[in-house]
């Protein structure tokens, strides 16, 4: 086998990569005149070159047609959100009427909790992972309080049971067995943002439903990263954002999934006119009649300019396809792992599960030797155009994204770590 750390090795892997041309579809930020090794697609994905044309089309239509833009042409604003529906459904494994692009992530979480978190005295509790993304915890805690319950007893956090900070399915099953009779809701991540651990969603749905709970997911770090089958998994609802692996731009309009079996739900919801039955919306009647499916959860007419880049992004996902992206992702992240194991184990400890089935593209790497040493390495990398992100107290997250990262990028990371150590 050729030397893993050689240029020739990475170049051969890149040459054999069937998705290598997709990198040219993105604007790559520069460092000292050359592209960065950008591993922060888990935070803000890169800009598809096609995004600008979609945004400009909206600006042009607004300039030339003004209010008529709502009703004219293929990309009329009245149905603009429908332009992304099929592509989104393919990315998350849903039926088209089960998904909608609207609002932002935490807003969607709250809106769906209005319908899907219905606590009673007997069943007031929400199960979530310890160390969840703060916004999710704030949302859940405030919902528990809003309903007059006590987060101290009714927000049940499953602690990691492995040394690396991951949570086994056995621990989740135990928590559901212990608290099941009190659970109104299980709200779980598809991929945990801090550890990069991916979960078996269908199994969590099965366990949650068997205990009589509703099961929802936050897929912020899963969508566009792992192939998902939300419909078949049986999730009641899910929410996610589009600015991470979906590359739809800062603050992009987010996504939501409502399972078909709830398409005509009489669950409570906070209603707005854009969720009203589309055929009669403009009769402007006083009674709210929801559009069946996910569309019925919309409140407002969507921010068209913020939705436009998602069209460019989804076109790339459709061309590349999730199975092909996942196949590359396993190899690309596998190469990163190999390099660490072969030559950087004295500097970096991999916290993310070693089993590819339990992770997406991200590896969370603990820098051995504590916080100061970790920060020093992080800054050394950034100063050389190798961009990861920092999680206190001593973790660097590296997310090689199969749409635009190369094996060469991964090698550059590993070599820069090696340079720092010596
Ligand atoms: C990125 C992320 C968020 C961010 O929420 P916004 O409402 O989009 O600002 C929330 N939750 C999780 C799990 C995330 O990964």
Automatic annotation (TrEMBL):
The modification N6-(pyridoxal phosphate)lysine is found at residue 244. Its cofactor is pyridoxal 5'-phosphate. GO terms for biological process: anthranilate metabolic process; L-kynurenine catabolic process; L-tryptophan catabolic process to kynurenine; NAD+ biosynthetic process; quinolinate biosynthetic process. InterPro entries: Kynureninase (IPR010111), PyrdxlP-dep_Trfase (IPR015424), PyrdxlP-dep_Trfase_major (IPR015421), PyrdxlP-dep_Trfase_small (IPR015422). GO terms for cellular component: cytoplasm. Keywords: Hydrolase, Pyridine nucleotide biosynthesis, Pyridoxal phosphate. One of its GO terms (molecular function) is pyridoxal phosphate binding. Pyridoxal 5'-phosphate binds at residues 105-106, 133-136, 218, 221, 243, 273, 301. It comes from the Bacteria. Pathway: Amino-acid degradation; L-kynurenine degradation; L-alanine and anthranilate from L-kynurenine: step 1/1; Cofactor biosynthesis; NAD(+) biosynthesis; quinolinate from L-kynurenine: step 2/3. Pfam families: KYNU_C (PF22580). Its EC number is 3.7.1.3. It catalyses: 3-hydroxy-L-kynurenine + H2O = 3-hydroxyanthranilate + L-alanine + H(+); L-kynurenine + H2O = anthranilate + L-alanine + H(+). Catalyzes the cleavage of L-kynurenine (L-Kyn) and L-3-hydroxykynurenine (L-3OHKyn) into anthranilic acid (AA) and 3-hydroxyanthranilic acid (3-OHAA), respectively. Homodimer. Belongs to the kynureninase family. This is Kynureninase. It comes from Thermomonas haemolytica.
């Amino acid at each position: 086998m050729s030397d893993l750390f050689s240029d020739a090795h990475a170049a051969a892997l890149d040459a054999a990569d069937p998705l290598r041309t997709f990198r040219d579809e993105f604007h790559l930020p520069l460092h000292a005149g050359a592209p960065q090794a950008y591993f922060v697609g888990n935070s803000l994905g890169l800009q598809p070159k096609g995004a600008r044309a979609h945004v400009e089309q909206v600006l042009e239509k607004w300039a030339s047609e003004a209010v008529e833009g709502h009703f004219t042409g293929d990309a009329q604003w009245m149905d603009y959100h429908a332009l992304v529906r099929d592509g989104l459904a393919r990315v998350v494994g849903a039926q088209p009427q089960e998904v909608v692009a609207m609002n932002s992530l935490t807003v969607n979480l709250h809106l769906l909790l209005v319908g899907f978190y219905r606590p009673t005295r007997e069943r007031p509790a929400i199960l979530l992972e310890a160390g969840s993304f703060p916004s999710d915890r704030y949302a859940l805690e405030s919902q528990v309080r809003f309903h007059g319950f006590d987060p101290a007893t009714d927000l049940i956090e499953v602690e990691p049971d492995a040394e690396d900070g991951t949570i086994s399915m056995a621990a989740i099953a135990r928590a559901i067995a212990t608290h099941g009779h009190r659970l109104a809701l299980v709200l779980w991540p598809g991929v945990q943002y801090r550890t990069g651990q991916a979960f078996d969603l269908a199994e969590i749905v099965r366990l949650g439903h068997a205990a009589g709970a509703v099961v929802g997911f936050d897929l912020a770090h899963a969508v566009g990263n792992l192939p998902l089958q939300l419909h078949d998994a049986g999730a009641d609802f899910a929410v996610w954002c589009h600015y991470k692996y979906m590359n739809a731009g800062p603050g992009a309009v987010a996504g939501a999934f409502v399972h078909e079996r709830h398409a005509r739900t009489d669950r409570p919801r906070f209603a707005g006119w854009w969720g009203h039955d589309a055929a009669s919306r403009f009769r402007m009647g006083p009674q709210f009649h929801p559009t069946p499916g996910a569309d019925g959860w919309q409140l407002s007419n969507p921010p068209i300019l913020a939705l436009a880049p998602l069209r460019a992004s989804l076109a790339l996902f459709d061309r590349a396809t999730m199975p092909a992206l996942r196949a590359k992702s396993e190899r690309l992240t596998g190469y990163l792992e190999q390099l660490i194991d072969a030559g950087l184990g004295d500097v970096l400890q991999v916290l993310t599960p070693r089993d590819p089935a339990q992770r997406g593209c991200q590896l969370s790497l603990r820098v051995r030797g504590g916080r100061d040493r970790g920060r020093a390495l992080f800054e050394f990398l950034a100063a050389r155009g190798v961009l990861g992100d920092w999680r206190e107290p001593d973790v660097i997250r590296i997310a090689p994204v199969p749409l635009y990262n190369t094996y060469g990028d991964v090698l550059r990371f590993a070599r820069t770590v090696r340079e720092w150590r010596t």
